[in-house]
Design goal:
This protein is an alpha/beta fold. The protein contains six helices and 13 strands. The strands form five sheets. A four-stranded mixed β-sheet has the order 10-11-12-13, covered by helices on one side. Strands 7-8-9 form a three-stranded parallel β-sheet, covered by helices on one side. It has a two-stranded antiparallel ribbon with strand order 1-2. Strand 10 and strand 11 form a beta hairpin. The chain is globular. The N and C termini lie far apart (47 Å).
């Protein structure tokens, strides 16, 4: 795959861009047992290179799930990504039973450049080697050419879809079902396009067995502005009829309490 870089990178923007080819490896692991801790390393035996040993704990099929939601951790310089790392470390220290991190978008200011993705991911590499991160498509991830799928592999269980503007997908963890929307793929009036709307309905219909249904998206349905009002009007009936318990969102850098 190719990553975009800049000869002069100023954080929020860059000039004189060039492409750099890299090799991306992805692995699919099957046959894992519930509630089991697995250890792994990544490397090349021929070259004598191995990463630190990481661990992954599979869901135990219980009626409990613990995760951390974060959002809009973007930075333009390393010192800002250091804050993201300190915050996440503090959250995990407070919640040591966290199974995974749910990120509702805007991990970088300028997602077109591999440098910022590198700072964002490398700053927390000691955490990510043991804790999965589930990412959500966001408006900052469409700069120049789409980049989320260059860093995350969430496409194995998703329907056929174009990924120029992001990815929508869903997953289960114990008794919870997570439906992740792509709010980059909207019509001009701010509503979901037909394919994603159809997928959303089918996904929620198939999740009836889940005790908890959690809707995840970047653009806020409930917020300090009316940016998501058309989208909320479009899917509000679905939220009610399919008993969605919790909506997790991002984008707005405000603290807001509603009735």
């Amino acid at each position: 795959t190719t990553l975009l870089n800049y000869c002069f990178d100023f954080g929020s923007f860059g000039i004189f861009n060039y492409e750099r080819k890299v090799i991306k490896h992805s692995v699919t692991v099957s046959g894992l047992k519930p509630g089991t801790v697995y250890s792994y390393r990544i490397g090349d035996a021929e070259k004598g290179f191995w990463s630190e040993t990481g661990t992954y704990t599979t869901a135990d099929n219980s009626s409990a799930v613990s995760f951390i939601q974060v959002s809009d951790t973007a930075g333009a310089a390393q010192r800002e990504y250091d804050v993201w790392a300190k915050t996440l470390n503090a959250a995990l220290k407070t919640n040591p039973d966290t199974a995974f991190i749910l990120h509702t978008g805007d991990m970088t200011y300028n997602a077109a450049t591999g440098k910022q993705w590198g700072m964002a991911l490398n700053s927390v590499s000691d955490i990510l080697i043991d804790t999965p991160l589930m990412y959500t498509s966001s408006d900052s991830d469409t700069a120049e050419f789409y980049t989320m799928t260059k860093y995350f592999n969430f496409g194995a269980n998703t329907p056929m879809q174009t990924t120029e503007n992001g990815l929508y997908y869903s997953y289960d963890y114990n008794n919870a079902h997570f439906t992740v929307l792509n709010t980059n793929e909207l019509k001009e009036d701010g509503t979901l396009k037909t394919n994603q709307l159809k997928w959303l309905r089918e996904d929620l219909e198939e999740s009836n067995a889940a005790q908890w249904k959690i809707l995840v998206l970047h653009q806020p349905l409930y917020g300090n502005s009316d940016s998501g009002s058309k989208l909320l009007a479009q899917i509000s009936a679905m939220i009610e009829s399919y008993d969605i318990d919790l909506i997790l969102q991002g984008e707005e850098a405000v603290y807001l309490r509603t009735e």
